[in-house]
């Protein structure tokens, strides 16, 4: 089968031919229709320090996808041939304390598809059936293909009650932009998003941000004054992984504010802890998606009118994957979709 893989320890990926995977008793076999490129795939493409430490080679990468079930293991219940599915890319152990308590997103033994085990950038993907998620007919393939990052945005944004609250999102990458749309959809008052990239800030405005602030040019405090926000933000969502953005966020939080951290900063990033202590901030780390509560919420929000379509900025047949990766690498993109059926 056709697969996009890293065959040598170095930059780039190759479209190659790999054996079709075998389906185990508890697995489903998915024929992939569409995939999307994640920031993680970009790290793997660039072969940066994280990728060199983490990715075994050879590795078939990718974890954002939608496809159709074409084969089912003999122990599998609840799925049928022909079901259109995406799936949770975190494979959890099932026997640690958190897994047994139903908190699978906190499993200490998680492995990632397309990172630790063969991924979705291929004609066929084998997935434990418990990880598959059926997509309702009224949700498009393109949107279903981005449920993984949409889930990161959903898990982070819905960590707190947003109704009537003022929210600051630092980082208008695809996940930050989707989070802005979610905050707007569920009833936040002001949704302010920051970045240093005008293309992405424009996209965030289209998707419902009250203000999209280029912090390399404009002062967040001026925007707050303009919005009549004397006291600060109630909710902060850090979605850049950039230390200065996190520090900026802490500076403008109101006392008693709640902060969720999705962006992955360099290890041992320093902050002013007095901001946390004397403001009585609550800080929550976010990893992945809640299985599967986040997935049900995603479907419900799309079915109740959340419009994420502007984030889907580029589409290519998989043979043109290099152009797709270039679009992501340029920073002038939202989500980039690769079509495996074309
Ligand atoms: P991305 O890299 O596309 O977006 C980050 C954005 O931050 C970029 O648009 C960048 O221009 C912007 N930025 C740079 N400097 C800034 C500054 N000073 N202030 C504000 N913004 C600034 O990433 P993404 O795919 O949208 O993911 C967002 C973050 O979440 C990344 O750090 C990613 O590694 C992380 N992530 C975490 C998880 C998890 O489970 N915790 C899952 C997925 C992604
Ligand atoms: Zn576990």
TrEMBL record:
SUPFAM superfamilies tied to this protein: GroES-like, NAD(P)-binding Rossmann-fold domains
One GO molecular-function annotation for this sequence?
L-threonine 3-dehydrogenase activity
Tell me the residue numbers annotated for binding Zn(2+) 1.
Answer: 38, 63-64
Question: What subcellular locations does the record give?
Answer: Cytoplasm
Highest taxon in the source lineage: Bacteria
Q: Give the reaction(s) catalysed.
A: L-threonine + NAD(+) = (2S)-2-amino-3-oxobutanoate + NADH + H(+)
Active site: which residues? Answer: 40 (charge relay system), 43 (charge relay system)
Q: Which cofactor does it need?
A: Zn(2+)
Pathway(s): Amino-acid degradation; L-threonine degradation via oxydo-reductase pathway; glycine from L-threonine: step 1/2
In the record's cofactor note, how is the cofactor described as bound? Answer: Binds 2 Zn(2+) ions per subunit.
Q: Which UniProt keywords apply?
A: Cytoplasm, Metal-binding, NAD, Oxidoreductase, Zinc
Q: Which InterPro entries match?
A: ADH-like_C, ADH-like_N, ADH_Zn_CS, ER, GroES-like_sf, L-Threonine_3-DHase, NAD(P)-bd_dom_sf, Zn_alcohol_dh
Does the keyword field hold NAD?
Answer: yes
| Enoyl reductase (ER) domain segment(s) | 10-338
Q: Where does Zn(2+) 2 bind?
A: 93, 96, 99, 107
Where is this protein chiefly located? cytoplasm
Q: So where does this one cross the membrane?
A: none
Enzyme class, broadest EC rank: oxidoreductase
Q: Which Pfam families match?
A: ADH_N (PF08240), ADH_zinc_N (PF00107)
Would you identify the family this protein belongs to, as annotated? Belongs to the zinc-containing alcohol dehydrogenase family.
Q: What does this protein do?
A: Catalyzes the NAD(+)-dependent oxidation of L-threonine to 2-amino-3-ketobutyrate.
Can you state the subunit structure given in the record?
Homotetramer.
Annotated protein name in UniProt: L-threonine 3-dehydrogenase
Specify the species. Answer: Dongia soli
